[in-house]
Amino acid sequence: MSDCLIFAALFATYGVLGRSYAGGPTGAELFDLKLVAMNTAFLLLSSITFGFALIQRQRAIWAVPAVAGHHLLVRPVVPGGRNL
Q1: Which of 56, 64, 67, 68 has a Cα-to-Cα distance from 48 of 20 to 30 A?
Q2: Would residue 41 be called left, alpha or beta, if left means φ above 0 and alpha means ψ between -120 and 50 degrees?
Q3: pLDDT of residue 77
Q4: What are phi and psi of 83, to 5 degrees?
Q5: Cα separation, 71 vs 65, whole angstroms
């Protein structure tokens, strides 16, 4: 979630200040914008993928298997003996 807020702030800043550059070189002159866009897309995709992985892990911790007609909450044990 914090990654989304950081990217939102960066995009908002760019939207407001993107064309104000006090006579110096513009962003298009300094950077290859296609590469910047591709890197940004990869970062956002990796953050989203990590978020989905955390959601799936949280669901796995509280898996509810059917055992002889009864439901039993099961919590996995982390290697090293520490329970989650």
Answers
A1: 64
A2: alpha
A3: 55
A4: -80, 150
A5: 6
* Spatial distance between the Cα atoms of 48 and 31, rounded to a whole number of angstroms: 25
In the structure encoding, which two tokens stand for residue 62, read together?
């509280």
Nearest to 61 by CA among 45, 33, 83, 82: 83
Choose among 7, 4, 23, 25: nearest CA to 15. 7
Is this structure's pTM higher than 0.85?
no
Alpha helix ranges (H) inside 23-68: 27-30, 33-61
For the CA atoms of the chain, what is the radius of gyration?
22
pLDDT in tens, the chain (84 residues): 677 788 889 888 888 877 777 777 777 788 898 998 999 899 889 989 998 988 888 887 665 555 555 555 555 555 665 555
Tokens of 26: 């513009």
Pair of tokens at residue 33: 């914008």
